[in-house]
Predict the structure.
Amino acid sequence: QVGARLDTTPTPKLWSCRILRILCVACGLLASTWEPNMLPSLIVFDLDACLWSPEMFQLDSGAPSEYCRKRGGVVAGRDTVRLFPGAEAVLQKLASDTAYAGVQFAVASSTTEPAYANKCLDTFPLSGGKFATVGELIRYRQIFPGRKGEKHFPNLHAETGIPYDQMIFFDDCTYGDNCANVASHCPGVTCVRTPDGLTEEDFLLGLAAFAAGKKGVIK
C-alpha cells in the first residue's frame, strides 16, 4: 500500500505524472497561497547524484575551487561539478519563494570527501532571494560516511528538534537504499528516491505525499 509507514516498495504506476498533478492540485500545492501544515518543517537532500554530478570521489584532477559561469558549474581541476537542472530549479525556488520562509533545509550525505562537498555548497550561486549561495540556504549539514538512518537523521533530529514526521528526504539511492534505511530507523520521514537526480516532478511528488500524510518510502 502506498504510504504505508515502512513500505519501501516503489509504486510507479500509482505515482504517475497524471496522478501527481491531481494530488498536487487537491493539496493546494499549485495554488498561490499555501497552508503552513502542507509543508514539512525540514527538507533534507542527499548531495552526490541527487543534487549534482559528478560525485565527489570522482574528482581526481583537483579540488573544487570556484564557480565558472562559462562551464556552468564549480571547477575542480579538469572536472566541473554541475547541479542537475531540476535540482537547480528547486533550490532557486526554495531560496526565492516566501511560501518556504518557515521551512528549514539540510543535507545528509555519506560522501568520503566532505570538504569537497562543503566547498561546492558554498560556491554554487543562487539568485533572486536573500541567499547568495546554496550553502547559505542549507542551514544543517550532516556530511560524512555512514548509514543515514542510523547516523545522519538522528543527528539532524537532535540538532534541530524537529520530529521525523515533519521531515522529507530526497536521495538517489545509487549505492544503497538510503531511503529504506531512513524509513526503517526513523519512522515518520517521507522519503523519495531520485535515481536520475532530483527533478521538479520528484520534488512536487514528495511535497504532495507529505501534504497527504504519506510516510515512509513513497517512490
